[in-house]
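Attaching the record inline, Q. Sequence:
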Amino acid sequence: MNSNEALFNYTLRLGDTSLILAQRLSEWTGHGPFLEEDLALTNIALDILGRGKSLLEYAAQIEGKGRSADDLAFFRNEREYFNALIVEQSNGDYAKTMLRQAFIDCFDLLFYTELAKSKDSVLAGIAAKSVKEITYHKRHSFSWIKRFGNGTEESASRLQHAFDELWQFTGELFEMTETDTILIKENIAVDLATLKPMWEKEIQELLREAHINIPETTFMQKGSRQGLHTEYLGFILAEMQTLPRMHPTAKW
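Structure, as predicted:
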């Protein structure tokens, strides 16, 4: 694998994760627990979608094969997607959606803060813009976790159930491959190993405040770096890609 291939793979992976998360969050539009929260989560989804679009546009440019961001989004199958497994998990109730978001926001703020220092000016620019948005996203999701954990018996129970379902997908966020190794040497990619202790410290403190029981050991799921996914991604792509695949030359 040469540097250009590694950069394409890296940017595509980041773009896929943002795109699928935005798709998941957009499912809440019109179904939020109250109007202000409905609007807040919709705006968060739009922020993340915008980041995904920028990353996929850059990935298409790096690839240099004439494909566009839309081509990458709508005309690949699930084995050609490399998003983190956690973002494709079902929304469930609001506790599950917010806990998933808290895990990701905490990771993203650490990650994009470091990526803003990248030698690659395009990635650094996307990251710098994203940090401003993620700072708000994290404050929002963290406040909900504390609210659920210190609310009613039911809200705390739902949060614990959400944790039991999602925790197994968090380890993969820090998995690195040959792609990362090549780009870290060129001061382009982020060394995820340096982020893990900081992420764990913040998340453990959040979960402690929310009175969540954390198991000492958990089998962590992985596979997305190789294009392997849970059953959910196929359904997401089927819904997301139906119209452009039916009318591939349509202009809107």
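The chain has ten helices and no strands. The domain at 3-246 is CATH 1.20.1260.10 (Ferritin).

More tomorrow.
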